[in-house]
Hints:
The protein is an all-alpha fold. It has helices spanning 12-67, 72-85, 88-123, 128-137, 147-155, 159-165, 168-183, 186-222, 229-232, 236-265, 267-278, 281-303, 309-345, 353-365, 369-378, 382-396, 400-407, 410-435. The relative contact order is 0.14.
Amino acid sequence: xxxxxxxxxxxxxxxxxxxxxxxxxxxxxxxxxxxxxxxxxxxxxxxxxxxxxxxxxxxxxxxxxxxxxxxxxxxxxxxxxxxxxxxxxxxxxxxxxxxxxxxxxxxxxxxxxxxxxxxxxxxxxxxxxxxxxxxxxxxxxxxxxxxxxxxxxxxxxxxxxxxxxxxxxxxxxxxxxxxxxxxxxxxxxxxxxxxxxxxxxxxxxxxxxxxxxxxxxxxxxxxxxxxxxxxxxxxxxxxxxxxxxxxxxxxxxxxxxxxxxxxxxxxxxxxxxxxxxxxxxxxxxxxxxxxxxxxxxxxxxxxxxxxxxxxxxxxxxxxxxxxxxxxxxxxxxxxxxxxxxxxxxxxxxxxxxxxxxxxxxxxxxxxxxxxxxxxxxxxxxxxxxxxxxxxxxxxxxxxxxxxxxxxxxxxxxxxxxxxxxxxxxxxxxxxxxxxxxx
Length: 438
């Protein structure tokens, strides 16, 4: 790769933020819908039962994040090569390979979640009713087993469909929450509604991906020429292992933190923590989507020999725009945190206000991470991103229980700020080093 190519490709930022805009259009709608079902759920359940709902769903998504094996980054990276070569059979073999690997990983995650729920649940304060539902709720893992069709849609630049998909799970949750609250079905009803939303999320994206594949690759996808996807794509297993470890580690703290809070302080504290986290989604989701949408463009830049100065310039502009967009959210939360909590969840959740301010600051610091991780993956070094996230997790996640004992719920905010700052700084340094290599 060239470290001296100093001009980003024409239209790179336009394509990046064009794709981001399409996906965020769906996320904006999803955010409003999510706010509506949160208002219903918190008022119907109260801090304790809402905390139980958060802990059960958080447990399943954490197990899924550790055990599953998403394939979207490999689909995008190696699929882009197949597209450039015009090798439709190679792309079809890659898609079939990614789907098999991911679905097997999803099955393993369901089994682990179901087997461990009776052991973990009592320590997290789940009542008997919730424990009985926790095993079937393990099927909610499927809500995250959808990266293969997502990667293929990114290859086709069908960010419109990805944006539409973002509305599915919140829409089902809102309808379910309204029905459950109106009927007075309590925690059991909300768990069923959340499970149905996860299943709809799984089914809808696979349907979209298969529909597009049927239009683009129907004969090849049904009967690809004989060949091995591993031989077609040298290093694919190593790449997938490194990129999946990176994703797991980068998301581990966010998924595990509510469980640690519930483990140490109980379901009520977990419910307060979840409400405090809610506004940070306004920053966190666009940042993660930005990392996903910037990755295909950076991969094309690297493939075209522009992995040096041009990549740095593009990445710098992307991060600057993301930080600028986050500033108004930070200011509003800083000034009106108690009012925001009261509007979202009611007076029973008032203690979440001060933590919300700190968590929003932590999310702002973490804005740098997804684009930098995407850059390192595009540069062929997903292991470097994994190392940075591993170092931040090993340094800060083990101290969370200690901070919770010392400072109560505010200890979670202290831990979040430290981890976000450490991970972002390490990732920036590694991108700078790798993109400077000739």
